[in-house]
Every structure is written in C-alpha cells, then in structure tokens.
C-alpha cells in the first residue's frame, strides 16, 4: 500500500509538471523575445538537474518514483531549453558567470569519475542548483521588476509539495533534500516576484 501511494504521488507530480510545462511553452511561443534572455539559464538548470538525477540513480538501486522531482525537473529544463532555443533564439552568448558555472559542473563530473562517489556528487549538484537561481533573482533585483510567470511557479511549487511523499516513503534523504531545496528556491523566486510586481 505504501508503495502504491508513493507511485500515485509521483504520477501527480508528473501531471502537475506537465501542466506547468505546457503553460510555460505557450508563453515562450507567444512572446519569444521576453524569454530569450532565459536561454542560458535553462542550460544551467539542465546541466545541474541532469547531474543530480544521474548521480542519484547511479548511486544505488532506487525506485524511479523516489527521485521523481529530479526526473521531472530535468525533463522540464531540457524541453524548455530546446523550445526556447527554437522560438526565442537571438544569439547564444554565455556570460562569465555561466562559463564559470559550466566549468564548475565539469569539475564535479571529473570528481565523480575520479572518486566514484555518487553521494558527494549528488550533494555538489544540489549546490549547483542553488547557484543556478542567482541569475533569475539577480535580474529581478536589478531591474526592480519581474516578468516571471507566477502561475507556472505556483504549479511547480505544488508539484514539489507532492514530491515529498515518495521521497519520505522510500527513505531517500537525498530526494528529501532535493525537494526541500526546490521548495525554498521557488518560494524565494515567488517572494521577489511579488515584491516587485505587487502581485497578491
């Protein structure tokens, strides 16, 4: 019964993320110029979530639903990156921060290869994911406004809440950390968005 309920929660996360993905993709297609600046950010998220997911499942015999949020995040980031690349591409130039970020990701991969420690690699990838939010929050603070799609962030926040159940049910503390980090990060983005958009 516990396994069944965990799988149900995981399926709910998939459905919720699917809805969030569809909403965001429509926003990119309708207003590509407004999302073009996010292209490199989605690349960073794709790299970090991919590293997190692969190190998580490489490190042990785990059920797919125990790491469902990481899987959904990775899929969403890759799809949004490719959609943005197609519809909002206006010249792909990496800033120094993004170059250093990718160098850091490569260093983590090298560490993983040399140490064969999936656990430490996964935790380092969590650190990368925290850092990946910096450009988004920085843009909001500098521009004193936000064009972030509030409804999409709400949807992703809901998916994050449901992801705690399969992680806890399977006793996967790495997944619990992932869900908690995602929950706090999304709350921060929403908080700054409300502050500068006056959205209640």
How would you describe this structure to a colleague?
- This protein has 200 residues and is mainly alpha-helical.
- The chain has one domain (2-197).
- Helices cover 82% and strands 0% of the residues.
- The radius of gyration is 17 Å and the shape is globular.
Detail the topology: elements first, then pairings:
Elements: H1 2-30, H2 32-35, H3 39-58, H4 68-87, H5 96-115, H6 118-132, H7 134-143, H8 150-169, H9 173-197
Largest sheet: none
Low-confidence stretches: none
Number of domains: 1
Kindly report the average pLDDT value.
Answer: 88
Q: What structural category arises from helix and sheet content?
A: mainly alpha
State the helical fraction.
over 70%
Strand content is under 5%
Task: Based on the model shown, name its key terms.
200 residues; 9 helices; globular; mainly alpha
Give a short synopsis of this structure.
With 200 residues, the chain is an all-alpha fold. Helices cover 82% and strands 0% of the residues.
């Amino acid at each position: 019964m516990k396994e069944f309920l965990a799988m149900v929660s995981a399926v709910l996360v998939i459905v919720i993320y699917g809805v969030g993905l569809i909403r965001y993709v429509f926003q990119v297609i309708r207003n590509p110029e407004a999302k073009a600046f996010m292209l490199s950010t989605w690349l960073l998220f794709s790299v970090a979530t991919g590293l997190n997911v692969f190190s998580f499942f490489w490190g042990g015999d785990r059920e797919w639903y125990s790491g469902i949020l990481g899987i959904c995040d990775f899929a969403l980031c890759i799809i949004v990156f490719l959609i943005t690349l197609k519809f909002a591409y206006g010249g792909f130039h990496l800033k120094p921060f993004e170059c250093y970020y990718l160098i850091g990701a490569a260093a983590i991969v090298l560490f993983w290869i040399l140490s064969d420690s999936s656990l430490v690699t996964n935790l380092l990838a969590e650190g990368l994911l925290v850092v990946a939010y910096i450009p988004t929050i920085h843009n909001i603070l500098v521009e004193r406004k936000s064009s972030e799609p509030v409804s999409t962030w709400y949807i992703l926040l809901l998916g994050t809440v449901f992801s705690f159940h399969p992680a806890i049910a399977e006793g996967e503390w790495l997944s619990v950390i992932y869900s908690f980090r995602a929950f706090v990060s999304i709350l921060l983005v929403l908080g700054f968005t409300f502050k500068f958009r006056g959205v209640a």
